[in-house]
Amino acid sequence: MNTRPCHQCDGETTVRTVDTDEGRAEALGLVIRELPIAVCGEGHRQFVRPAFPAELLDHLTKEDEPELPSGEEKGLIRKHYRCEDCHAELTPPEDHRHTFVVNVELDALDAFRVELTMPVYRCGGCGKLQVHSLKEMRKHTPAALAHAFQSADIPPG
After folding, report:
1. Disulfide: which of 60, 125, 130, 151 matches 69 by Cβ 3.0-4.6 Å?
2. Are 154 and 45 in contact (CB under 8 A)?
3. Cβ atoms < 10 Å from Cβ of 87
4. Residue 95 contacts by C-beta under 8 Å, 6 or more apart in sequence?
5. How far apart are CA 42 and CA 56, in angstroms?
């Protein structure tokens, strides 16, 4: 992959991979493993292409997160969550956080992993573990992703 010059010193960059720390937004935690970034000889870091953050966010919210088991959100004031399969009420198990690992492939880049950690509920009917709702997860994904990028010292832009 051709990389763009460093945005700080105009030096040549090469693609390297890094792991981010957990980016958190409310109950959602997000870690990126083997994140491809462009690094120059001075150690300045930047995204491999300007559209990368938007591409990753789009991939997560439109392709990956909808594949995760998620309940249906009901109620305007007091929220209730129902199983996506049998529609029984979801109840939190004792340890109600779970990490889902998603493999991401974007054009012209090696695959990397995103770990999404969030509360899960257990269905009282069929026992299936699932996140509260897809809507709730999508609401927090942009901020969690931004915090993960910041933890890897990648400036915006």
Report:
1. 130
2. yes
3. 13
4. none
5. 26
Produce one character per residue of 28-63: b if its CB has 16 or more CB atoms within 10 Å, e if not.
Answer: bbbbbeebbbbbbeeebbbbbbeebbebbeebbbee
pLDDT for the residue numbered 33: 98
- Report pLDDT for 91: 78
pLDDT value of position 93:
65
Residues, the chain, total? 157
Helix (H, G, I), strand (E, B) or coil at 52: helix
14 contact partners, CB below 8 Å, separation of at least 6: 3, 38, 39
Pair type for strands 72-74 and 90-91: unpaired
pLDDT (tens digit per residue) in 91-109: 776 668 899 999 999 999 9
Q: What is the dihedral of CA 37, 46, 99, 135, to 10 degrees?
A: -130
> Which ranges of the chain have pLDDT less than 70?
1-2, 93-95, 157
11: which residues sit within 8 A by CB, 6+ positions away? 5, 40, 41, 42, 44
Q: What's the CA gap between 7 and 147, in Å, rounded? A: 21
What does the alpha-carbon distance between residue 133 and residue 131 come to, in Å, rounded to a whole number? 6
